[in-house]
Amino acid sequence: FRLAVNAGSCQEDEDQRGLAHFTEHMAFNGIEGYPHNDMIDQLQKIGVTFGVGINAYTSFDETVFMITMPTDDQKHIDFGINILYGWAHGLLYDPKEIDDERGVISEEWRMGNSASDRMQKKWFPVVFTNSLYAQRLPIGLIEIIQGFKPEVIRRFYNDWYRPDLQAVIVVGDIDVDKIEQQIKDKFSPIPAKENARPKVYPKIEDNKEPLACVCTDKEAGGNQVMMIRKFKHEPMTTVQDYRNHMIE
User: Which of 87, 121, 163, 212 has the highest Cβ tally under 10 A?
Assistant: First the structure.
């Protein structure tokens, strides 16, 4: 089971830097019908372990939630659909759970504060030609992670977690027609967002001359040379688009 959300760290406002990733974490700390850690507890009872059977990631432009459920019992399939619905439209954002998660994400930030990270902050603006991508690493800013008010992260969720930016994906030993109808029945009642904020992909400027950057750090564990070539993005909406992409 997958829920793909077409929004990530580049959709954050200035006071939300890091909250796309924080929202991903909150999806495991209380959804509609399963407050606090109830969802994880119920999953563990049927052999689904956190980090293996259930996980997620946040990138610049997308957030994807993943769960692998047994399909030998309809109640497990129903549970999986309910979880996807909770992620799509039913995050609870309990203030205590938010405060508890600040420490978890602060530790992620601390562990990532390495030589590689420090050098990356120098070469990203060169690679991305000073685009917003260079400023929106999903981990965010520690001062926002530790100090934002709950309504700020709820604003991100309300703005970007909406039907026109989401896809539900189910793959496995299932009745296709039955699961498709079940998805329609469950998700169709979610209302479309009125006056929705448009998703804008940050532009990466072209450059006539090669761009170069040399970064050093006393804690670097080795040497690395990279050569990166930028290609124009071509949307893939058909099988032929995908074939062309693979050929290129």
Answer: 87
Known catalytic residue at 24: yes
124, 129, 130, 134: CA torsion to nearest 10:
-30
Quick check: 235 pLDDT over 90?
A: no
C-alpha atoms less than 13 angstroms from C-alpha of 179 in its C-beta half-sphere: 20
Residue position matching structure tokens 């029945």:
185
Cα Dmax for the chain: 60
Residue 53: φ, ψ to 5°: -85, -20
3-class DSSP assignment, residue 22: helix
- Of the candidates 12, 14, 24, 219, the residue annotated as catalytic is 24
Separation of alpha carbons 159 and 43, rounded Å = 29
Best CA proximity match to 27, nearest among 106, 109, 83, 103: 83
The helix (run of H) or strand (run of E) holding residue 4 is: strand 2-5
Q: Which residues does 108 contact at the CB level (< 8 Å), separation at least 6?
A: 139
Backbone angles phi, psi at 143, to 5 degrees: -65, -30
Phi, psi of 98 (to 5 degrees): -60, -50
Portion of the chain with pLDDT greater than 90, in percent: 88
Quick one: pLDDT band at residue 231, thresholds 50, 70, 90?
confident
- State the Cα–Cα distance between residues 58 and 89, nearest whole angstrom: 17
User: Please, which residues bridge with residue 57 across strands?
Assistant: 64
Contacts by residues 151-158 (CB-CB < 8 Å, ≥ 24 positions apart): 152/15, 152/16, 152/19, 153/16, 153/19, 153/22, 153/23, 153/26, 153/93, 153/98, 154/93, 155/13, 155/16, 156/11, 156/12, 156/13, 156/16, 156/19, 156/20, 156/23, 157/23, 157/91, 157/93
